[in-house]
C-alpha cells in the first residue's frame, strides 16, 4: 500500500502528541483573540503552550498551517444538529446556535480573527471553507427530512436553505453591526422556512440527480 503524505499538524495520535497539539491550539486561539492573525508567531505560540519551538515548527511549519489545523479541530468539536421534528424548529435551533457562537466573547473574537486571516492566506481560506462545508453538511439532513415529511417541495436544495439561515446573521456580525439575539435568529430561520415552503430553493427538475 502506498504511503500517504500527511500535512504538518494534522496527525492525531493519542498520548503526548495529542496533549501537545491541544496545548498549541489553545495557545493559538488565545493569540488570535488577543492580537489577531498578527499574533500567530510560532515561537510565541510555543512559549504560551510551554512546548519546544522545534516541536511547533516541525509539526506546523508556518502560521497558516497552524490556523488551518485550529479550524479543523473546531469543526470536529462543533455541536451536533438538533432534531425537533419540524423544519422551522430545526432551523431555529441552527440559527440560535450560530448567534450564541458569534456573540460569545471568546468565540466571536476568534471567528473574526479567523475570517481576517483567511482574507490574506490561501491555506487558511481553504480551511475556513472546509469548516463551513462541514457545518452545512451536518445540518442539511434537517432539510432532507422536511422534504420526506412533505413540509417543503421535492428537489429543495438543502445546503442552500442552511446557508440562507446563517447569511443574515453573519452580515450583522461582520458588516452592519446590528444586534444579534434570539429574536433575530428566529426571524432568519422563519424566513428561510417560508422561502423553502414556497419553493424558492427547489432545484430545476433537469438539475436534480
UniProtKB/TrEMBL annotation:
Residues 41-60 bind DNA. It comes from the Bacteria. Residues 18-78 form the HTH tetR-type domain. Pfam families: TetR_C_11, TetR_N. Keywords: DNA-binding, Transcription, Transcription regulation. One of its GO terms (molecular function) is transcription cis-regulatory region binding. This is TetR/AcrR family transcriptional regulator. The lineage of its organism: Bacteria, Bacillati, Actinomycetota, Actinomycetes, Streptosporangiales.
Amino acid at each position: 500500500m502506498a504511503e500517504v503524505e500527511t500535512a504538518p499538524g494534522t496527525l492525531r495520535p493519542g498520548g503526548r502528541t495529542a496533549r501537545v497539539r491541544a496545548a498549541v491550539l489553545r495557545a493559538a486561539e488565545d493569540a488570535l483573540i488577543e492580537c489577531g492573525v498578527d499574533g500567530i508567531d510560532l515561537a510565541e505560540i510555543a512559549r504560551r503552550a510551554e512546548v519546544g519551538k522545534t516541536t511547533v515548527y516541525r509539526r506546523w511549519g508556518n502560521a497558516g498551517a497552524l490556523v488551518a489545523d485550529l479550524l479543523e479541530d473546531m469543526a470536529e468539536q462543533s455541536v451536533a444538529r438538533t432534531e425537533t421534528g419540524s423544519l422551522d424548529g430545526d432551523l431555529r435551533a441552527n440559527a440560535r446556535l450560530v448567534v450564541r457562537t458569534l456573540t460569545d466573547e471568546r468565540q466571536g473574537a476568534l471567528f473574526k480573527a479567523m475570517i481576517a486571516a483567511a482574507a490574506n492566506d490561501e491555506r487558511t481560506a481553504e480551511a475556513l471553507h472546509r469548516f463551513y462545508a462541514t457545518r452545512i453538511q451536518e445540518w442539511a439532513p434537517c432539510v432532507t427530512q422536511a422534504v420526506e415529511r412533505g413540509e417543503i417541495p421535492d428537489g429543495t436544495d438543502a445546503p442552500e436553505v442552511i446557508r440562507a439561515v446563517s447569511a443574515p446573521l453573519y452580515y450583522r456580525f461582520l458588516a452592519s453591526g446590528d444586534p444579534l439575539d434570539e429574536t433575530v435568529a428566529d426571524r432568519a430561520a422563519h424566513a428561510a422556512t417560508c422561502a423553502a415552503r414556497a419553493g424558492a430553493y427547489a432545484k430545476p427538475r433537469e438539475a436534480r440527480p
